[in-house]
Every structure is written in structure tokens, then in C-alpha cells.
């Protein structure tokens, strides 16, 4: 080794030892998230406003002093919502497309057009050692949340879907529909069965907050929860905050799906105040998710819809009075594209115009960043 080579060798050793030294120093402080940022996959908060097209967002924004938390998102894209064989999708086919990455027939959950059962992004994250959680303002067996854990030929098979949740390993879940678990045709009490296998199932937010079980379910209502403007409690903001507190305390990345289910129901009812109140409820939950991402780092937030509902147009309004008048063209869904908003880790990959199935692939890319 000549002198020059010896000097280079010395520099390399110095460089390597400085890296190792930094590494060992960082390990002494596991609370610092610079090390986590580099070594663990991001947390994923996937938020779906069912039936939330651009007009619903516009109406909700105007009513909310012409602002919304979506304005803080870093990237925006558009997704095409059609199902396998219909231009206008339903929530089962679009939920399956986003959750599992394949187009299917309307009404089908977690099974593709060739009758193959699909793995969802939640299940994929689970296989990567993520903690998983589902929150919906409908029953937990409704088509959108079901797309993340169930495989059934018809979204109406609520008791089968409940049975699949009972055998699933979702760590935390919140939604209505308790009756599908404990007032069943087969007389089984799935809640009791789950509790014998380590789950704690609760019926109010205080117990949800209080129990420290790593498997926890909260049934907000026996049936479908009511609209927020007729008294649904707790708000989505509270549900998301409580769940993020739990997820944060786990030393693992997490996948959380949040659905504002009833923006869609307001659309079916052609009821603009219903849509607006549900949007505002969702808006606060998004705001809290953003706060979480800003504070904790290494988090991806994606907010989108499964389709638009009502064919809503904004006809008139008054910005000073925060008032808006809309008109609907259908009591069903429409075939318009819906926006995708993203923030945080890997959020840039959600720009552009793409099929709803691409959401699954993009989330997978984010998991493996
Ligand atoms: Zn609908």
C-alpha cells in the first residue's frame, strides 16, 4: 500500500466509524424520529369521503367560511371511478378497486371479475407488521370498510361480512352495526366469541379510550348510525383522535382507514345540508390527521372519494353568508372523476389522472418506500 492509498484507506475508516457512531448515538434516543424516518415504513392514513365529489367539497368549503383542511394537502390527483362493467360504480366495486387494486362488478366486495379473492392493502400492511385500524360513520360491515377485510359476492351479506371481521385480525375498529354481530340468524354471538380470543368490544368512547387492549372494537350503534346533524356521537374527529392516540403508542407503523360514510347518504337523499354537515365532520377529522402527520412525521395521508353521489352542481350561493344552493341530477351515483389529495411521505406519487385501482398500487409503493 503506498502512502496515498494508506491515506484513502484512513479516510474510509474514518467515514465508516463516523456513520456507525451516529447510528449508535441515535439508537440511544429512540424517541427521535430521524432514525425512524429512515428505517421504518410510513404510517398510512387513508381517508374516504363516500360520495364526495368536487361539488360536495365546494359546497362544504363555502359553508365552512370558504376554507377546508384539504387546502393544506400537498398534492392533488384525479381518479376514474368506473367499475369492471359499469361506467357508474357502487361503493363495493370502487371500495374493492382502491382497497385491493382490481376492478370488479358492482355489489361485489374483495373478489375480482374472475371470482378470485383479493388481498387488501390493509392485509398487505398487516403482513408487513403494521398495526391496522378501521373507522366508519356507517356500520362497520358496510361496503367501503368491508372492502378492506371481507370477500363476499354481495355487499348485502352483512352477517357473512361480520363473520369475516370476527375471524380477521384488524387491531382497532369503530363503526355501527352491532346487531350483525350479536343478533344474528345463526344465533351466534360474535362479540362474545371475539372477547374469548383477546378482543375487547366496547359501546362508548370512554371505554374505547380507557381499555388498553391491543385488539379493540367500538360499536357506536346497534344499526346504522344517524346523521351528524341529528345527533350522531362521537364526532369523526373524536374517533380519529382516540385511535391515533392508540396507534401512536405502538412502536410499529400503522394503516388506518377512515370513512365519512354519510356524505353519500346526503347525496342519495338530495339533501345539501346533510352533505355539508357530514363534510364538516370529515373536515375536522382530516385536520386532526394533518396535525398528527406534522407532529410525528413519517406519515402519508390520502383523502379521496369512492365516487360522486347525486350529480350535484353548485347553482347559486353567497360567499359572505357562507350559503350555497345546489341542484342534483340523480338520486344515485354519477360517473365523474373524483379528486385525490395527499400529504406527507410519498405523497407526490398521487398526482396525475389514473384508475381507482392505482390507489392500491400507490399505497403499496408508499409502504415499501
Ligand atoms: Zn351510495
Produce the secondary structure layout.
Layout (H helix, E strand, L loop, with lengths): L2 H25 L5 H7 L3 E7 L4 H10 L11 E6 L10 H10 L20 H7 L3 E9 L3 H4 L11 H10 L4 E5 L2 H4 L7 H7 L3 E3 L2 H6 L5 E4 L16 H14 L4 E7 L2 H6 L3 H25 L2 E6 L3 E2 L3 E6 L4 E5 L5 E2 L3 E7 L7 E4 L1 H11 L2
Parallel strand pairs: 1-7, 1-8, 2-14, 3-4, 3-7, 4-6, 5-6
Antiparallel strand pairs: 2-13, 8-13, 9-12, 10-11
Helix pairs in contact: 3-13, 4-14, 7-9, 11-13
Bound molecules: zinc ion.
Structure description:
With 369 residues, this protein is of the alpha/beta class. It has a single domain, classed as 3-Layer(aba) Sandwich (Alkaline Phosphatase, subunit A). Helix content is 40%, strand content 20%. Strand 5, helix 10 and strand 6 form a beta-alpha-beta unit. Helix 4 runs parallel beside helix 14 and helix 7 packs parallel to helix 9. About 7% of the residues have low confidence. The structure holds zinc ion. The site of zinc ion has 6 residues, from helix 12.
Q: For the record, what is the CATH homologous superfamily label?
A: Alkaline Phosphatase, subunit A
- Percent strand: 15-25%
Arithmetic mean pLDDT: 92
Bound molecules: zinc ion
Rounded to the nearest angstrom, the radius of gyration is 22 Å
Count of helical stretches:
14
Uncertain residue segments: 13-37
**Domain count:** 1
CATH architecture: 3-Layer(aba) Sandwich
Strands side by side in the biggest sheet: 5-6-4-3-7-1-8-13-2-14
Number of strands: 14
Which structural class fits the helix and strand makeup?
A: alpha/beta
Oligomer: single chain
Main beta sheet: strand number and arrangement?
10 strands, mixed
Which outline best applies?
A: globular
CATH top-level class:
Alpha Beta
